[in-house]
Amino acid sequence: xxxxxxxxxxxxxxxxxxxxxxxxxxxxxxxxxxxxxxxxxxxxxxxxxxxxxxxxxxxxxxxxxxxxxxxxxxxxxxxxxxxxxxxxxxxxxxxxxxxxxxxxxxxxxxxxxxxxxxxxxxxxxxxxxxxxxxxxxxxxxxxxxxxxxxxxxxxxxxxxxxxxxxxxxxxxxxxxxxxxxxxxxxxxxxxxxxxxxxxxxxxxxxxxxxxxxxxxxxxxxxxxxxxxxxxxxxxxxxxxxxxxxxxxxxxxxxxxxxxxxxxxxxxxxxxxxxxxxxxxxxxxxxxxxxxxxxxxxxxxxxxxxxxxxxxxxxxxxxxxxxxxxxxxxxxxxxxxxxxxxxxxxxxxxxxxxxxxxxxxxxxxxxxxxxxxxxxxxxxxxxxxxxxxxxxxxxxxxxxxxxxxxxxxxxxxxxxxxxxxxxxxxxx
Length: 427
Fold this sequence. Notes:
Blueprint: H1 2-12, H2 22-35, H3 42-48, H4 62-72, H5 77-83, H6 93-96, H7 115-138, E1 148-151, E2 155-156, E3 160-167, E4 179-182, E5 190-191, E6 198-202, E7 206-214, E8 217-226, E9 232-237, E10 240-246, E11 257-258, H8 261-266, E12 275-281, E13 292-299, E14 312-318, E15 322-327, E16 337-340, E17 343-346, E18 363-369, E19 373-378, E20 381-387, E21 395-403, E22 407-414, E23 420-425
Parallel strand pairs: 2-8
Antiparallel strand pairs: 1-3, 3-6, 4-5, 4-7, 7-8, 9-10, 9-12, 11-22, 12-21, 13-18, 13-22, 14-15, 14-21, 15-16, 16-17, 18-19, 19-20, 22-23
Helix pairs in contact: 1-4, 2-3, 4-5
Protein name: PKD domain-containing protein
Transmembrane segments: 113-134
Keywords: Membrane, Transmembrane, Transmembrane helix
């Protein structure tokens, strides 16, 4: 765990973990939530990195370790462990020099030894290599065929308590303790035993893709759909990830659809720190996310306490997956990311400089998707295009999330033939 922390510190750009401030942990929390899709509070990160001392070394659950390893540049936690079978000792050079984003941990020079001990060490190394090879090539992790994630009420209003269980075939002979549910809304993953019932509280409207994992491998996915009656607005604070705060039902006015800092503060959100406002409209549309045109005229938040990058995230919910675009000012593109079905591009590992855009004075975001190929433009300027493989399927809603106070002037969805699917706001 100490080793992966040093890798993360190198990618984070500040290898001196001991000098990190509370602001560093806040920033890393945001980066990990976007780049690795794991939600870790600053206090949890402090336990992981040793800032908060505990009686025993804090060791997070597997899904969290997988996310940390991915940000460190590895496929998952098992991949990281396989490539580091012997952790560096505290006195080694590797323990004191933080690695860069693409560097390997240097190993200390071996002391002079006689040939008999050398032969013994070589034999041991060969045995370890053979065991690793057999483990990952001859015996890959079991994926229980026929195992399904079942939800008795996958569709509901907002909020919604979904009831889950695992359905196994009669021939299943695996380890039933290895099943975990990833709920898809950023909340903590939970283990589930076959035959048991697990209820999860979804507190925001949208479409979420709950996944069943077995031994950290995906087995099944089902969508959980929280419908709305038109637009809803919800606020939440970066410092309080356990609660959301519904706002009065918004509508389009002369200045578009927005909320005021006073309205956000009245719900209980501290507007002197980083906060977010979600505008969501979920409904079933007669269109597919694989052949659609989205146009959104909007204005992002101006500079205010806790808001520097003036970000906006636009999500199109599909039947099977989603399109998601996080746009920020040019200086903040390290945090930007684009997701089109199974393809994800993160600014921490890819140069997304072309995607950097300042919308504090307003602008038009346009997404065109045709035959599973997406083109993104802002104010008529091409920013990014990419092809993907897995179909998104039928559209089920849109979400526009602002850091701070933003406004939406107009939103529309059209089919490639020009027929209107959805339109709201001023023209």
